[in-house]
Amino acid sequence: MGSVSGGCIEDDLIQRYTRSYMASSGAGSTLPEQLEGPPQRLKYGISADEAHRFGLPCGGTLELLLEFNPDGELLAQLVKRLEGGELVTRNTAIATGEVSLASCMAPRALEINDEQLSNTFGPEYRMLIIGAGQMSEYLATMALFNGFSVTVCDPRQEYVASWSIAKVRVTQEMPDDVVLSFKPDRRTCVVALTHDPKLDDLALIEALSSDAFYIGAIGSRKNNQARQSRMMEHFGQTPASLQRLRGPIGLYIGSKTPSEIAVSIMAEVLAVKNQVVLPKEMNVAQAKNLMAQP
Question: Is the pLDDT of residue 261 over 90?
Fold first, then answer.
């Protein structure tokens, strides 16, 4: 299942590591590669010739750890724990192939040395979109192909009835109730797209009390300022508590249409997710303020 590089590396692995290749080699032939035993480390693209041969023209190197006959029960346990919302580290002993699973409190980069490979998995990133309009459909589509699980909340029947994107959970509960039941964690983003304070404001306030890594609402600079003023006047928020609320959301790319605006929002969500510090000029409000100066 899946792929390694989308190029010739897959063909080479299939040729070297399949039982059909063993069978076609004939009795008594010398098989170049193992099909069982401890894990094996491979490198592709070490030389310029090999990089060109395997479709790595940038001169990069691809390193693989092959595990033979992995424990299916442990894989099932890993999947079950990920589905339950756990962050899990899978440790593989290089010498023996023995695998262990351990709970993890924070995401960690892959680590490998001569003794062990440690890889942290899941749970999947989630996006909660408030509003089921056209822009939400564009944003949900991009979130899905970026690996997010997407939920759309909109109590308005006329909007929900026309929703057309598959693989998205749609609910008509009130947005603030959905946020509470959603229990946003550090792998969750909440995006309000209705332009309706009755739907957006309470949901955003609940999200601000969570660990969500991204919380934002669409709107102009004027509408964003009005939203913050409402929240401070009526809901006890402060400038400090509203620091995490993003708006106007998205990166400044000169977007005008719903699809382009959705691209700018998705780009900002991914930048925050990947902990990329963006120049201030990429902020929509900052960019427009600079443009308005004489």
Answer: yes
